[in-house]
Amino acid sequence: MVLRALWNIGSGLAQRALAKSALRPGLTLEHAAVWKARPGILDCDINLHLNNSSYLYNMELARWHFTAVNGILTNVLKKRQTFLVASQAIRYRHPIPPLKPYEVHTRLVYCDDAWLYFLQQFLCPTTGKVYAEGLARATVREGKKVVSAAALYAEIGDASALPTEMPEAVREFLRWDAASKASMEEAATGAQRELKASPPKRGLHAELTRSWNTPV
How do 33-37 and 102-111 pair as beta strands? Predict the structure, then answer.
């Protein structure tokens, strides 16, 4: 996974270096960033189509690629900042068969002082069919300091207007996100209560077998 991420980062950096003068401003703002791929055998599941988990990883690779192309990644690395994804959601519509070319179109559809919301669509390049659509909520941190979207795009000289009107998809996503946060906190409280009442076994054997899926 790391090698594929590095490959796509390198591809984006090469594209920026070799064709910088041809790059249009407003990448992910005025027009989508396009990342191209096709499912390999290892990307597919037993149903012979792109595995569900592969979509999320493809979304990540597409984000790495476009940040390398437009220069954001270079600035982030220079300042030792960090990209963090807090939550994601995806809706599947049509399967992508093995070796079928597809594209991931990424757009920044909303941002505030702390978060960036990327809408990422999986499209067929020849028919326009939408295979799936995902939404990712991300942030950039410099230590404990939050770096805003305005600062990120200003540093690369992109004066395109940032999206300030929240789409309905983001609004509903945030409702799910809040409900999920409450559910996780409730689950953590319950698990801690159970562990306090019945402490886990100690010792080397107990530690080794914590990840074993045994019948008993």
Answer: antiparallel
* Residue 163 structure tokens: 């999206």
In whole angstroms, give the CA distance from residue 40 to residue 115. Answer: 33
- In contact, 92 and 172? CB cutoff 8 Å: no
Distance CA 109, CA 120 (A): 10
* C-alpha closest to that of 160 among 4, 28, 46, 18: 28
CATH number of 1-165: 3.10.129.10
Over the stretch 173-187, which tens digit does the pLDDT of each residue have? 999 999 999 999 999
Three-state SS letters, 144-188 = CEEECHHHHHHHCCCCCCCCCCCCHHHHHHHHHHHHHHHHHHHHH
**Number of CB atoms found within 10 A of residue 119's CB:** 21
Give this prediction's pTM. Answer: 0.92
Residue 146 has pLDDT above 90, yes or no: yes
Q: Using alpha carbons, select from 69, 86, 58, 77 the residue that is nearest to residue 10.
A: 69
Task: Give the number of other CB atoms < 10 A from CB of residue 144.
Answer: 5
In angstroms, the CA 121 to CA 118 distance is 10
Q: Which residue from 122, 119, 121, 130 is spatially nearest to 172, judged by alpha carbons? A: 119
Using an 8 Å Cβ cutoff, are 22 and 43 in contact?
A: no
Which pair of tokens denotes residue 60? 């990540």
| Tokens 């790495």 belong to residue | 64
